[in-house]
From TrEMBL:
Keywords: Lyase, Metal-binding, Zinc. Its cofactor is Ni(2+); Zn(2+). Pathway: Secondary metabolite metabolism; methylglyoxal degradation; (R)-lactate from methylglyoxal: step 1/2. Gene3D superfamilies: 2,3-Dihydroxybiphenyl 1,2-Dioxygenase, domain 1. This is lactoylglutathione lyase. SUPFAM superfamilies: Glyoxalase/Bleomycin resistance protein/Dihydroxybiphenyl dioxygenase (SSF54593). Its EC number is 4.4.1.5. It comes from Ciceribacter lividus.
């Protein structure tokens, strides 16, 4: 068994692609339009995963856009998407310069959280920091956004 992708439904595909690709840096590797089902699927990969993802050998984020307006509520059991970056401060600066709120700033240089246009939580982790910072991350004050 291997992990393939995480699917999230998006209300505005253009706004989501602008956020995930132009601002955050993910790359579209394939898309499917389904006329009968009236939906579009777009698969996005992180730059380091793109070549493997094109061969379906690396995990992707699958955006599902239903052409007919739907309200997506609930899903509290969904937590977040996590990405490792080379420079967490540069990443957060680019996000902020493009109007994205840094809900949990990288005070410890290790971990930050933002949200997509649909409110999907995205964890940004500094490369080389492993999964847990020197200080237990639970001690980080929660800004109340969670
Ligand atoms: C391509 C493969 O990775 C899929 O996930 S296709 C799964 C399929 N998706 C859809 O039908 C998209 C439109 C649908 N209205 C929706 O919003 O899901 C599917 O079976 N989806 C059901 C689901 O719960 O994921
Ligand atoms: Ni899928």
């Amino acid at each position: 068994m291997r992990y393939l992708h995480t699917m999230v439904r998006v209300k505005d595909l253009d706004a989501s692609l602008d956020f995930y690709c132009r601002v955050f840096g993910l790359i579209e590797v394939r898309r499917m339009e389904n006329e009968k089902g009236r939906f579009t699927l777009v698969f996005l990969a992180a730059p380091a995963d793109v070549e493997a993802a094109r061969d379906n050998k690396a995990p992707c984020l699958e955006l599902t856009y239903n052409w007919d307006t739907e309200d997506y509520t609930g899903g509290r059991n969904f937590g977040h998407l996590a990405y490792e970056v080379d420079d967490i401060y540069a990443t957060c600066r680019t996000l902020m310069e493009n109007g994205v709120t840094i809900n949990r700033p990288p005070r410890d240089g290790h971990m930050a959280f933002v949200r997509s246009p649909d409110g999907i939580s995205i964890e940004i982790l500094q490369k080389g920091e492993g999964l847990a910072p020197a200080e237990p991350w639970l001690s980080m004050p929660n800004t109340g956004a969670w």
